[in-house]
Fold each of these.
Amino acid sequence: MESAVNQALKSIPNVHDCITALIDSKTLNDVPLRRLKHCIRLYLKEVRQSILAGHIAPSTLFDRQTWLEQLIAFVRQYHRPRFTRVINGTGIIVHTNLGRSLLPTLAIECLTVAGQNYSNLEFNLDTGKRGSRYDHVDDLLCELTGAEAALVVNNNAAAVLIALETLAKNKEVIVSRGQLVEIGGSFRIPDIMDRSGARLVEVGTTNRTHLHDYQSALSSETALLLRVHCSNYRIIGFTKEVPETELVRFGKEHSIPVMEDLGSGCLIDLSKFGLAKEPTVQEVVASGMDIVTFSGDKLLGGPQAGIIVGKRRYIEQIKKNPLNRALRIDKFTLACLESVLRLYLDETQALQKIPTLYMIAAPEETVKLRASHFFHRAQEGIGDHCIFALVRVYSQVGGGAMPGENLTSWAVSVNPRVLKISRLEALLRRATVPVIGRVEGNRLLLDMRTIADEELDLLYETLKSVFSL
Ligand SMILES: *Cc1c(COP(=O)(O)O)cnc(C)c1O
């Protein structure tokens, strides 16, 4: 007698049957044949494995309608673009996992132009000769930061790597123990140092480092003093770090360059929005720092990039490093970065047009109004399925910037009447436009600081669709 498992396995259709059925059904006309075949193989493999693993009761025989429905759903799901927009209801403005900074409309226009047309990327229109891609933003960066020279690479990790490799390979770099950071995505100062070929010399203690600690670590091998901004953590209590100006003076006395990895690197003082005072790039440059590195897509609110500004002699050295070619930015980054930096020429413009900045600067009242609007609409239309509430919450800047700093904000909390909260969270996460919120107990919080007015319709429809499944 044939086993039930074998019977079930035999009832699975073959690839040919599946293709014919899919083509006949005409529901997947937009999916190329090779993709259909690929999906069919994956689907059949999954079914076979499920039967063998006992996940599908062997008594389940596959009739045509059952497997065709499943297969169509499988193909639809599989064929969706993998990279997709999401609605960020986490309240974390520079959310590294959700794409960090959103770009200003102006920057998007520049991206389109750069993509659809030839450009003077490396062509000097004055001389008619080959030009440098870096010329387009160097002057702007110097004008905005007060630095002598600038260079842009792929990201800030690359900026730190190339600066260390250029200035301190096979030599020693002194860093305070309180600044040996690890940030998300496995960027760790000791590891990047190791990769650059520079030797890390740790000084001081976790909470306190004095100038005399640097003094005692100084040797003929010392090539650089590195200061790293405590981006994503804070040491509080009995603490001390050597301020920029003192370290710069000390470096000068010993003819050793001083570099600061600022991480976020902000050009506008955000303390006026209730956040802690962090040194701006201009202030750090003015302290006399020889090299300053920061990200393009954290607080700056531009595209992913690593910006290096500082003294011309060092920047020139870094520019000549062959690594620079490997770490160079593309025309899209350049187009985008230039348009974002131009906005900074007028602080009011920057605050209005750069999404990262206006989300930080948005007054609590504005966010509350948006939340209240959505709350009423949701209660009216989806109230049968959920209990909604308007709640005061805290947003975060994110991106490893300003840890522990909170911005008062407003969220709509969603408490499903029947669905489990984990199920609601998963359904929203898998929606056509996924919605990512913050689960707190048995409710999902949607912080309205990081949701735009233009997204509210979509958010509403998505939430509603979850309950009509
Ligand atoms: C974020 C950060 C980096 C890495 O910058 P990316 O642009 O993500 O490569 C390096 N150092 C510090 C201190 C940071 O905060």
Amino acid sequence: MKFATKAIHAGQEPDPTTGAVMTPIYQTSTYWQREPGDNKGYEYSRGTNPTRKALEDCLAALENAKYGLAFSSGMGATDAVMKLLAPGDEVITGNDLYGGSYRIFTKIYANYGIKFHFLDLSNPEIIRQYTNEKTKLVWIETPTNPTMQVVDIEAIAKISKEKNLMLVVDNTFASPYLQNPMDLGATIVMHSVTKYIGGHSDVVMGALMMNDEDLYKRLWFIYNACGATPGPMDSFLVLRGIKTLHLRMKAHCENGRIIAEFLKTHPRVDKIYWPGFTDHPNHEIAKKQMRDFGGMISITLKGADLKETFRVAGSFKVFTLAESLGGVESLMNHPVSMTHGSIPKEVREAVGVTDNLLRLSVGVEDVEDLLDDLKQALS
Ligand SMILES: *Cc1c(COP(=O)(O)O)cnc(C)c1O
């Protein structure tokens, strides 16, 4: 089945007891047992719930994976992956990560004896230099947040496989509509479902998708044992959001392109980060592994200090100044004070996350209104 059909139907058979076409919200924590152990496949909703199961099957289908697991947040999903590791293990990851990923690696898992190497993965060969017998996992994000660097998933997957390392790809920014890392050799795809997949800024959720049955069982064990699993109402909302993922993504990409082109020549804009530009340093890789370039754009304001950047950030009327991304509404984010506040100044500035950087999540409003808003705020 093609993407749009899967988005609308995967995992969602009419309800067997009533024929309801939409998956019901099974708002129950527990399930009747005929006698101890004799049940209908559901025992307790931390571990299994029919609404969440329908969502997980749909999520797996969107990433061309066999198995899906939904978590109560993207960070909950990341946490479950890290629990596959043991003290002494080493992880190779990028040097431009979502702030929360950097935080859980350095402030939580480093304390449990796991060692992280934050590398510039624009040359995947660097992975070989940092791999030893303790290395277990490679964690990448592409495009990165917020400077939109693109790394070559297929090349990294090849080296990971050769070295017997699990490759996890945080596919949040691209969404499954633009990029499918499983097809390029990833072991696990991770999503903050909160963003494009949910799409309406009304749910916080995460997901993992994978093909390996043994790995699925190990992750399900962690998911059930540790309990960061979402409830049925949120699962329902995300199932509903996914039905328009393909329509929304088309509109995000269209508006994103128009706005990126407008900003590129704007006199107040210094740097602009959007992988659709032919002069973006990783444009060729983006073209190879993504179907389009999305609606995430970062800019730096020419000659602006923190105060001036705050003034501009506060003067939008259609773009809403807020953390997060991927919803139908356009959002404006100031990474240094918002999403990336937990990253030390030297670390973030080394990858271009400076005080005058603004990140736009271009929504699906009428693009004329978005352009007018940018014009007035930048003037
Ligand atoms: C938001 C985000 C996360 C964390 O997800 P939550 O749902 O907020 O816990 C992880 N990675 C990326 C790229 C994100 O944008």
